[in-house]
Amino acid sequence: MRDLRTMAGTRDLLMVADSKLVSYSNASALLTAGVQFIAPAPADQVKDEVYAALGLTRAATVDWVPGRDAGKTSAQRESYRVLEDTHTLKGARKSDPELTVRRILVHSTANAAGQRAARDKRLTKAADDLGKLAGAGGGRHYKNAEKIVARLGVIAAKRRVASCLRFHVTEDEHGVPALDWHFDEDVLNCPAEDL
Questions:
Q1: Residue pLDDT tens, the chain, 195 long
Q2: Element (H, E) at 115
Q3: Rounded to an integer, what distance in angstroms lies between the CA atom of residue 166 and that of residue 1?
Q4: 3, 36, 71, 126: which could join 159 in a potential S-S bond, CB 3.0 to 4.6 Å?
Q5: Residue-wise burial string across 178-187, b where 16 or more C-beta atoms lie within 10 A, e elsewhere
Q6: Which residues of 152-172 are buried (b: 16+ CB within 10 A; e: fewer)?
């Protein structure tokens, strides 16, 4: 990125890159050099809460047909919607100035269907793991509530269900733990029109 600083004043330069470009230091060097750039944001840069707060009705429909859909009828084709906003990148030091970049969010019906299938698969695997854990309460490996809660944390992280997992661990008069769990239907049934 050091060489980009010598390009100051070249506002007509456009760089297209992959998601590895998107970091505070790279964006700072590009903006300082006056280089316009396009790069997909890494998955960890856009949190689920951002997408959950966006409504599909606010996004503009894109008149574009990918090559794989060219021979399909309009009802069979995937559809795409786009919403534009800004994103602020923060540096590692408090003295680093905040960088505001333009962000374009794209909703694809194909990606949405794939994400739903992946989520359903994660939920099924998590339910299997949680069912086994509930049955193992008080056994050799899960003799107390703390061990069950620790294992719950591992399952929630591994299966990525922490946002919808609800649980309660109790102990009877003999100290034998019992696990009661469910997936929060309000979280799972977010409106389909959300981006």
A1: 445 444 444 456 777 877 777 888 888 888 888 888 888 777 666 776 676 667 777 888 888 888 888 888 888 888 888 888 888 888 889 999 998 888 888 888 888 788 889 889 999 999 999 999 999 988 888 889 999 999 999 999 999 999 899 999 999 888 889 999 999 988 887 644 333
A2: helix 109-136
A3: 46
A4: 126
A5: ebebeeeeee
A6: beebbeebebeebbebebeee
3-class state of residue 72 by DSSP: coil
* 136-to-131, 133, 140 alpha-carbon distances in Å: 9, 5, 8
How many Cβ atoms are within 10 Å of 30's Cβ, its own excluded?
Answer: 23
Q: Which residue has the tokens 């997992």?
A: 165
Angle between helices 109-136 and 145-159 (to 10 degrees): 160
Backbone angles phi, psi at 141, to 5 degrees: -90, -20
E runs forming strands in 21-98: 36-38, 60-61, 80-89
Q: What is the CB-side half-sphere exposure of residue 176 using CA atoms within 13 A?
A: 10
